[in-house]
TrEMBL record:
It comes from Flavobacterium psychrotolerans. It is found in: Membrane. This is Probable peptidoglycan glycosyltransferase FtsW. The lineage of its organism: Bacteria, Pseudomonadati, Bacteroidota, Flavobacteriia, Flavobacteriales. Belongs to the SEDS family. FtsW subfamily. Keywords: Cell cycle, Cell division, Cell shape, Glycosyltransferase, Membrane, Peptidoglycan synthesis, Transferase, Transmembrane, Transmembrane helix. The keyword Methyltransferase does not apply. InterPro entries: FtsW/RodA.
Length: 431
């Protein structure tokens, strides 16, 4: 185990926080999966779901390990090549989205021959944010014009969001917000950002009007997220009210110390208790202390991302850490905000805690890239320390050699002076 830990490169604090969140996830997932177990096979045995979650976490850590070994500057080219591939996957998902648990889920596709469902928007967000970081770092030395950035930066961004928006408003809004944040960090002109925000609001409003006027034109989740916004902003009853009501009951039942691990009652009634609403189950079982503890873990991880971004030796590295790390924290805050009804129901999982394979794996890819950036910083710092050590050793050797030569010269000088001072000795020596 010690050798394994020593083989891990990069920021050890990030490794530690990720491991703690992953380890903590087993108890809530094991407890909250009872609802799925009753629906799935009627026995209530959640051991299978726990083992499945264990497999997802183990594969996730292998992904982090493999990805963090790749030099992060390689992802520049990968993002440029991967963006068209992502558009194809998003288009296929929009048209051929699969059905999960009997419900329409056009955000997902099923991987052939494996049977694993995969949410393509999570992969799209990673590739797009790397692409934006690449553009901003490339344009650092040249002045940015709105016309050139409109084609080189914003067209790919809006094309990607156009594929995601009809099926998943929350993810597209989160990605758009992160792109804006990244452009702000990358010193993109504020007046241009304001124009883009205005264009985004107008485009979204127009899309909503078209979707309401022609509901049959979008046979996907448009009606779902529009109704969620309507129900959140009004008092009209909605099926999401049931989920929010059960989540608030769970949170209220937890109190300060909670009911105890595995003793949740609302997990038997709350849909998606092991994924979208797992935070409510955490508060019910571990109380306010557990809920605040999870929140603090994410905030500490957020602070560590800021430190890693600040330490990065290149602008691309700084933007990469910010662009891939900050969305995890914001996604966690959104998940918690939904559970306490601060936000409308969005379907965003709690990173590294909620059950689900593809969401965990995509988070682990992002974490692997972030750790790769910190690994490069450590390598540079180590090379600098080794160079300083070599220079110091060389300087010491030179000083010793100079001192030795000076001593020899002084000894020779004294010998000559002695011979000159005693002429008889010099004559005898000559004979």
């Amino acid at each position: 185990m010690k050798q394994l830990i020593n083989s891990l490169q990069g920021d050890k604090v990030i490794w530690s926080f990720v491991a703690l969140l992953a380890l903590f996830s087993f108890m809530p997932v094991f407890s909250a999966s009872s609802n799925l177990a009753y629906i799935g096979h009627g026995t209530g045995n959640t051991l299978g779901y726990l083992l499945k979650h264990l497999a997802h976490i183990c594969i996730g850590f292998l992904i982090i390990y493999w990805v963090h070994k790749v030099p992060y500057h390689y992802f520049r080219a990968i993002s440029k090549v991967g963006l068209p591939v992502v558009w194809i996957l998003l288009g296929y998902t929009l048209v051929k989205g699969t059905v999960v648990a009997g419900a329409n889920a056009s955000r997902w596709i099923q991987v052939p021959f494996i049977g694993i469902t995969f949410q393509t928007s999570t992969l799209a967000s990673i590739v797009l944010l790397i692409f934006v970081a690449r553009y901003l770092s490339k344009k650092r030395e040249t002045p940015v014009t709105f016309k050139s950035s409109l084609w080189e930066l914003w067209l790919p961004v809006f094309v990607t969001l156009m594929f995601i928006l009809p099926a998943n408003l929350s993810t597209s809004a989160l990605i758009f917000t992160m792109v804006l944040m990244l452009t702000f960090i990358g010193n993109y002109p504020l007046k241009y950002i304001g124009l883009i925000v205005g264009a985004g609001i107008v485009s979204l409003t127009f899309f909503i009007f078209v979707a309401k006027a022609f509901p049959d034109a979008f046979p996907n989740r448009v009606d779902t997220w529009i109704s969620r916004i309507d129900s959140f902003t009004s008092d009209k009853p909605n099926e999401d009210d049931y989920q929010i009501e059960k989540a608030k009951i769970a949170i209220a039942s937890g109190g300060v110390y909670g009911l105890g691990p595995g003793k949740s009652v609302q997990k038997n009634f709350l849909p998606q208790s092991s994924s979208d609403f797992i935070y409510a189950i955490i508060v019910e079982e571990y109380g306010l202390i557990g809920g605040i503890g999870v929140l603090l873990m994410y905030l500490l991880l957020f602070f560590r991302f800021i430190v890693a971004s600040h330490k990065a030796n290149s602008l691309f590295g700084k933007l990469l850490v910010a662009g891939l790390g900050f969305p995890m924290i914001f996604q966690a805050i959104v998940n918690m905000g939904v559970a306490v009804e601060l936000l409308p129901v969005t379907g965003q999982p709690l990173p590294l805690i909620s059950s689900g394979g593809s969401s965990i794996w995509m988070t682990c890819i992002a974490l692997g890239i972030i750790i790769s950036v910190t690994k490069k910083d450590e390598e540079i710092a180590q090379e600098k320390a080794e160079k300083e050590s070599r220079d110091e050793t060389l300087k010491r050797m030179i000083d010793e050699q100079i001192a030795k030569e000076n001593a020899i010269e002084e000894e020779g000088l004294y010998s000559i002076e002695d011979k000159t001072a005693n002429p008889m000795a010099a004559v005898l020596n000559k004979k």
